[in-house]
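Exercise 7. Given the components listed, write out the predicted structure of the assembled complex. Treat all entries as one system.
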Amino acid sequence: AQSVSQHNHHVILSEAASLELGCNYSYGGTVNLFWYVQYPGQHLQLLLKYFSGDPLVKGIKGFEAEFIKSKFSFNLRKPSVQWSDTAEYFCAVNPDSNYQLIWGAGTKLIIKP
Amino acid sequence: DADVTQTPRNRITKTGKRIMLECSQTKGHDRMYWYRQDPGLGLRLIYYSFDVKDINKGEISDGYSVSRQAQAKFSLSLESAIPNQTALYFCATSDREGQETQYFGPGTRLLVL
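Answer.
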């Protein structure tokens, strides 16, 4: 079955630290890849997405993600986090451009001021 | 961003009661989705609809039903609520152009006693 794994359920960092959140998926075909963010008390928002082309994708608020096809990974990065980045981050995969998004379990990120 | 709205935002109900959660969108999208979010499980798809006459079960449809009253409206019903349906429920939309970027409502927090 297709699945998406997010390696860390909770991450705690200090401000200005660098961030990398892991995402791996199990599907051998063409995929569209997404990272969504859910700030406390708010709805899910699209952070960035990859459909094709340059595997390094830049999103909002200084986030980026790199698609490594050989590793089935789409890790999210930010060079220097801020307290306002405290949120839950979800990776999602859309296999073969069909209707369905397969979601990871989410990673809760807490940034200490 | 109020393109996707959900009512109510919070609801407490008792076991056995029938309740309805409503979703409206002004994005003009054909596709609409209902998800539930549980801690540590990410989002799971309950039902989805590609247009008014096309409604499909998702991963966890048992105990739920839906109605697509119009392109802009998609309601989720719990016919006889049970405590393990306590969760955060999200409505989402996407357009027919595919690539499945989904846009989410603010969520309905449901507690079944």
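Discussion: Residues 24 and 73 of chain A are 4 Å apart (CA to CA). The two ends of chain A are 40 Å apart (CA to CA).
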